[in-house]
Specification:
Structural class: alpha/beta
Largest sheet: 9 strands, mixed
Order of helices and strands: EEEHEHEHEHEHEHEEEEEH
Mean pLDDT: 94
CATH superfamily of one domain: Class I glutamine amidotransferase (GATase) domain
CATH topology of one domain: Rossmann fold
Low-confidence stretches: none
Radius of gyration: 17 Å
Strand content: 25-35%
Shape: globular
Length: about 250
């Protein structure tokens, strides 16, 4: 749907971490998010609004005015949520973030709000849909190539399926992407369609356009300032959603 120059910028909710942070004399727990997520949204015409972990009962109200949702990266999703025992190298549970983001995603689903799920976000959506995760890829796939450590993003090649909307969004069948993860999709969740794989067979992206617009990628598109295609697509979908909501309100 085309938008006019007078259309307001879409409001995009972006989930955040809740971590200890230091500033001057202060050492407190605070909402935290790398700036790259914010600039990825604002550079393509959106307004980014932070959604730090809080009472999951507030999720529906928090997202009610949003036009799109970004589920950001971060710590591992708790394996207890998909019925598996904890691997020794799985991150300590972050129950506050898991509960909040699951509630946000389900609220977005109910409303048909477009979702872009990044790294942990992809894994959370997969779990929300009844899927499972491989908890430690160096063990299950025998490779460390997806997380080389030291805060340095690995670069990996993925093959995009021509049968899914992701190929239309990117205009490519092969991409080189930024990775920083040691977990990945095992069993794909209900309604999710694999949209990209790596050569070892790992699902690198999925989509679901059956109810709303959901795109999940295992990589970190916010780290590539020269490629904003996924965020541009989210903004386009968010504008269309906002227009439909406005029309329905008449």
């Amino acid at each position: 749907m085309a938008s006019s120059v007078s259309d307001p910028a879409p409001l995009i909710g972006v989930t955040t971490y809740l971590e200890r942070a230091q500033q001057g004399v202060w050492d407190v727990r605070a909402a935290f998010l790398p700036e790259q997520y914010l600039t990825s949204v604002t550079s393509v015409g959106g307004i980014a609004l932070l959604l730090p972990p809080q009472d999951p009962d507030a999720a529906d109200a928090a997202i009610s005015g949003m036009d799109g949702l970004v589920l950001s990266g971060g710590a591992d999703v708790a394996p207890e949520l998909y019925g598996e025992d904890r691997h020794p190298l799985t991150d300590p549970a972050r129950a506050d973030r898991d509960a909040w983001e699951l509630a946000l995603f389900r609220a977005a689903e109910r409303r048909g709000i477009p979702v872009l799920a990044i790294c942990r976000g992809l894994q959370l959506v997969n779990v929300a849909r009844g899927g499972t995760l491989q908890q430690h890829l160096p063990e299950s796939l025998g490779t460390e190539k997806y997380r080389i450590g030291g805060g340095v993003f690995a670069e990996n090649d993925v093959e995009v399926s021509t049968e899914t909307p992701l190929a239309e969004i990117t205009g490519e069948t092969e991409m080189r992407v930024h990775s920083y993860h040691h977990q990945g999709v095992d069993r794909l969740g209900d309604g999710l369609v694999a949209a990209a794989h790596s050569a070892d067979g790992l699902v690198q992206a999925f989509v679901d356009t059956s109810a709303g617009h959901i795109v999940g990628v295992q990589w970190h598109p916010e780290e590539n300032a020269e490629d904003r295609r996924l965020f541009t697509d989210l903004i386009s979908q968010a504008r269309a959603f906002a227009a439909r909501r406005k029309e329905d309100a008449r």
